[in-house]
Amino acid sequence: MDAEHVSPPDAWAAAERAARASYGRLVALLAAPTGDLALAEDALSGAFEQALTTWADAGVPANPEGWLLTVARNRQRDVWKSPAHRATRPLDAGGDDHTAADAVDRRLGAVASIDPIADVDPFAIPDKRLELLFVCAHPAIDPAVRTPLMLQVVLGFEASQVAAAFAVPPAAMAQRLVRAKRRIRDTRIPFAVPDRRAMAERLPPVLEAVYGCHAIAWREGAGSLAGEAQYLAVTLAALLEREPEAWGLAALVTLSLARQPAIRARNDRPPFVPLDEQDPATWDAALIAEGEEYLRRASEHAGPPGRFQLEAAIQAVHCDRRRSGATDWRALRTLYLALDGIAPSLGARVALAAVTGRIDGPDAGLAALPPEPADGFQPWWATRADLLDRAGRSGEAAEAYARAADLADDVAVRDHLLARRRRLEGG
């Protein structure tokens, strides 16, 4: 094994990089033969624990992901071959003469004979994650947990991140995820891409999971995850070929990624700059052209545009400022009205009020704001603060900026809002 002797902190860093980049891929490969997500996660967790000690002594292997895959598969085999597991969890229904271990060997096939340390590259089988995404959208799984399950198991987010994305207490989300994994194991849901009709039925939560990956990456400034969300969205659209919402999501993620060069370049958080104050010359022209092409493909198919197509079109209008030097606010209002018609949400209505304020003045924007939400919706307060600021109502704007800052979960956004408040107060 080509490895370099490293200190324990370096071993920790290498394991952290592997977990961040490859956790979902590895779980998908481990769970594919049997559908036992909990066992796959346990085996991989044990492999990471072993890596911390082994890599500190023997060095980080040339292919850390392959090393982890080998160790985790060996741990799976130990469980499968244990007397308790063979007596209670046979892998093959129908009562043939094969043992559980024999069944596993048959399912792994030629893959089991490869030396993963030298040859297996989990990145070479990206469709395994897409298979697992569609498995998690199986009709037998509770619809409320399908997308959270994908985000945790396939895309590797912490349960707390998933809970925050869905505004659910972490303990409640953890219970939902555990129950879902047990159901997948106990009902023996097959790990295979369904036929095209079933894929269409299962597509919405899969799209939501990829969008969720994009949204979390955007919020947390995770450059690798932002690229990963774009890769998955484009791969999924190409796989389905004629699904306009899949192309719409590919366009949305790509156009959004084009406007965040700092996040693409590194994982530390740059200062927050509002969209209308950003320099379009810093945006990625190649990615903008790519996203516009995906949006064109989405529009080729008959039928009214869906949510992701409309959101992508909104991003395209913003990105067009790189070419024209101006924002077409009236086009944005038309798109937000259409979005509110097919996928009404508080966020879309707040954005519509902000756009109305740009076209008809801040007082009209304030009048268009929906009623104050009871749960403290941060974008509502940030938009209200900006509209009040533009209307010259400095005292009220300062209070709204303070409230928006209190609700912000992003330090850079909080600092920006507090700076605006200090400006109004003369600080």
TrEMBL record:
GO terms for biological process: DNA-templated transcription initiation. One of its GO terms (molecular function) is DNA-binding transcription factor activity. Residues 202-298 form the DUF6596 domain. InterPro entries: DUF6596, RNA_pol_sigma_r2, RNA_pol_sigma_r3/r4-like. Pfam families: DUF6596 (PF20239). SUPFAM superfamilies: Sigma2 domain of RNA polymerase sigma factors, Sigma3 and sigma4 domains of RNA polymerase sigma factors. PANTHER family: BLL6612 PROTEIN, BLL6612 PROTEIN-RELATED. This is RNA polymerase subunit sigma-70. It comes from Agromyces tardus.
